[in-house]
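## retry 2 of 3
previous attempt timed out at serialization; input unchanged, resubmitting
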Amino acid sequence: MNCPPVDALIAVAVGDPDAPARGHAAGCPACAARLSEIRSVLDRLEACVLSGHGAGRARLLAALAAEPVPSRPALLRRILMDRRTWVSSAAVAAITTLAVLLGGSGRAGALAETLQPFKEAKSFSCEMAPLQDGKPAPGADRVTVRMTWAAPGSLRVDVLSGGKAEQTTIAPHGKTGVVLNHRDKTYRPTGGQPGHQEATLLKLIDGLAAYSGGDQKSVGTDMIGLVRAPRFDLKIPAPEAKDVFWRAHIWAHPETKRPLRVEFATQAGKAPSEKGVSGVRLEKFDWDVKADGLFDTTPPAGYKSAVAEK
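## retry succeeded, writing output
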């Protein structure tokens, strides 16, 4: 599910009858919560209203001109000008609160928002690429790998080449998995436990959902495609060993605050950008995807057991 930017939710909050995000917000828990936050701040603004007070309106506009607000000034001004009443200069603190809510790079709450989809989503899919020395591994550009996760811990990895399916690994939570080789039309059961790569991916996803350092600030910004995105460096505790951490980088979209890219090392204690370290990159996320049938391990008709052939 692709969620709309904050601007679209603000249009819903101020009562725009043509706001296209209205229907989405009604069916998306994350956006509904975000919309509630925006409305709460607007309510605080209206608590400072002096109805029909021209001088209060003038003071507000002067304060807006002087305030270093990290959001779009034209948008903020339109929100306040569209209200039926006017805010006095005593509302400057509330205005600043709304500006922070709209977003500025590097603010403390950004990481918590970026991690929220991992905490709330019932499923998601993304593209996945192997890394070596912090860069896509040789040959990674010749295939497309699509990973799908579903609660409480099912995993599916599809490998495509030239748009055609090459291999599918299905690891349903608590059940025997299967690897499908679409070129040879064979299948191989994997047992009740996920493989090393799948287990590492599940640890990362669980670690992101449980991460408690949501108030930390970004360490800088990087260009991800055409977007300059804030980056956060995470140390995720390993559940199986004390004082052992998995290290990851996560980039947030500057407007939606949702994850834009995640990179992590497949070796505990190592950074994914370190020389000689293997890692994985996740990007192009879709949230709450339909997972019905995706984790069915029944081999397609005509597929033969790879084990029986040996």
